[in-house]
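Researcher: Next entry: receptor protein-tyrosine kinase (Pocillopora meandrina).
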Amino acid sequence: MLRMVSGKPSLFSVLFMTQIFHGITSHQCGAGIYSIFQKMLRGHTYMTIESQAGTVALECREACHTDFRCQSYNIDVLNSKCELNNRTKEARPEDFVKHKDRYYMARNSKRVPLGSIPELPAYSCREIKASEGGQAVSGTYWLDSTRSGNSILAHCDMKTEEPEFKAVFTNLGSTAAGGPSSIGSHYTGQDHDGQVTVSSGIQLWTVPYTGEYRIEAIGGAGWYGENSVVQNGGRGAKLTGNFNLTKDEIIRILVGHKGKRGPNSKTTTGGGGGTFVVRGTNTPLIIAGGGGGIKNMSERHSGM
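Model: Predicted structure:
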């Protein structure tokens, strides 16, 4: 099991500039619309609309207000085009740039908050907080940190601006000696959905956030002979440690299987497999040995 403990806070600045453009009426400004001349939000346009010089401002405004994904828009004055954006300049200040032929419009009236619906996931908790002017509260939000198109629900701590992440890795239902061959639907809807692939029985997990993670590894239990009074094998080891992981690095995870009975005699049994968590190609983070196989056991310690 992996759980994110904390992240590294960072400073961000939000620049508020208001300049009324001649094509927008005072009534529209009162509805929560303001413009910034010769500026645009770059790289977050999901739809471009072609219009005419006299109507582009009104058509763009109406298009933005009827599309729940629209957070802001750019107007290309020279070419009479409208660009709908799924981010605001507050969310992505690094992409708010100068452009002599455009002006930027913010949608504040009935704007759907970033991360509040799966169709509008944020890249990070920090982006949500910035998008809301620093006023976002801790809670559950939709995130797509890998930008894969698969949004997941995660709890954001807005004090640290990092998600509370929890992932439980299993053997994916496999009992084969070579381990699992595919993820299937085992992690669907969980925090690590879409972050794991399988290669040669080993699960490759792409770290979604930079921060400190608590990793708990448990080795597979051993099996027991058919004549054993206690029908349980030896327990696998359980180890826990905290580790600093970096976004996009690959963690290799091998989950140990439970032991089996011998093929020729049901009174002989095998031990459980070890669970290995390593970073890169061969750097161990934590290893938990498997439990021993039991031929015949009359009493078992209750454990801790």
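Model: Note for the record: Residues 6-32 have pLDDT under 50 and may be disordered.
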